Amino acid sequence: MKKLLFVLALTLLSVTSYAQTIFVRTVDLTIGLKNNGKVEWQKPTEQSILIKIEKTFMVIYSAKVQTFRVITYDGQYDSGIKRWYCTDEEGLNCYLYMSSIDKDKNIVSIGIEYDDLAYYYTGSQE
Question: Which pTM value belongs to this model?
């Protein structure tokens, strides 16, 4: 009986930690145009947008709601950066990156990169 309860507790713990939802409230957006491997960054603009990241999808609640379906999650990709390989609602593939800028204040950066375009949001994780 103790084994059964232990296995049940471990299962519930793994399911709840695996299904974590992340919310980020952005403060700005920077757009970059890619050309021959170089990115030309525009000036950041103020943007207060809610971004929701779950195990299988991500939603950006901007004027036009954007939905991304997660194909694979690479976990800790490089130097604490998390990376997801996604497809958007138009079927275009992209990478989603998330990294911590200031852990004490929960400030994070979220990037969405296509072959020719990149969006980077800065905001606070809620």
Answer: 0.77
